[in-house]
Amino acid sequence: MALTKEQQLQYISHLIGECHKCDLYKTATNHVPGHGNANAEIVFIGEAPGEQEDLQGLPFVGNSGKLLDKLLNTIKVPRTDVFICNILKHRPPENRDPLPQEMKVCTPYLKAQLKIIKPKLIITLGRFAMNYFFPEESISRIRGQVRKIIWQELPLTIIPVYHPSAGLRNGAMLKSLQEDFLSIGQYLQKN
């Protein structure tokens, strides 16, 4: 009997919980594999878990998550309809930036999650998540744009936006985030 998508994602979560390919697990309280609807049409990808995410084992549950919830409400997409994850599956110490080697070892987990879910749309949250898929680009240049790529042999449609934490720190970036989410809402209505 074939495993359901939920069971497959639980298995990936188990593998992440056992992962020792980098040292992040040593300082993390919990692994944060991702959370949400296994049949989601939209997957949000951030860079790494923060303090609250590490404590709860869930992505985007702190202040950035509260802002993300508000942004989702503006486009009438319930959080229960999406899947939210990060490139890194453990919190970096002191919330430092992800290291290239850490992102590299987490790639198979993210790829497996995307292959299971098969989303119609990916929203990257922040510079690191955007650069993960578009290493030569600047987020300020391509934010809000629909990009179609082949990544790790997977056809993906991606819209990069600023990270919600940037919106919390910077009013201009918050305005850009709000504009980009309105564009995402329009894209979803057409597709």
TrEMBL record:
<dbReference type="InterPro" id="IPR005273">
    <property type="entry name" value="Ura-DNA_glyco_family4"/>
</dbReference>
<dbReference type="InterPro" id="IPR005122">
    <property type="entry name" value="Uracil-DNA_glycosylase-like"/>
</dbReference>
<dbReference type="GO" id="GO:0051539">
    <property type="term" value="F:4 iron, 4 sulfur cluster binding"/>
</dbReference>
<comment type="similarity">
    <text>Belongs to the uracil-DNA glycosylase (UDG) superfamily. Type 4 (UDGa) family.</text>
</comment>
<dbReference type="GO" id="GO:0004844">
    <property type="term" value="F:uracil DNA N-glycosylase activity"/>
</dbReference>
<dbReference type="InterPro" id="IPR036895">
    <property type="entry name" value="Uracil-DNA_glycosylase-like_sf"/>
</dbReference>
<dbReference type="GO" id="GO:0046872">
    <property type="term" value="F:metal ion binding"/>
</dbReference>
<dbReference type="Pfam" id="PF03167">
    <property type="entry name" value="UDG"/>
</dbReference>
<dbReference type="InterPro" id="IPR051536">
    <property type="entry name" value="UDG_Type-4/5"/>
</dbReference>
<feature type="domain" description="Uracil-DNA glycosylase-like">
    <location>
        <begin position="33"/>
        <end position="182"/>
    </location>
</feature>
<keyword id="KW-0408">Iron</keyword>
<protein>
    <recommendedName>
        <fullName>Type-4 uracil-DNA glycosylase</fullName>
        <ecNumber>3.2.2.27</ecNumber>
    </recommendedName>
</protein>
<keyword id="KW-0234">DNA repair</keyword>
<dbReference type="GO" id="GO:0006281">
    <property type="term" value="P:DNA repair"/>
</dbReference>
<keyword id="KW-0378">Hydrolase</keyword>
<keyword id="KW-0479">Metal-binding</keyword>
<keyword id="KW-0227">DNA damage</keyword>
<keyword id="KW-0004">4Fe-4S</keyword>
<keyword id="KW-0411">Iron-sulfur</keyword>
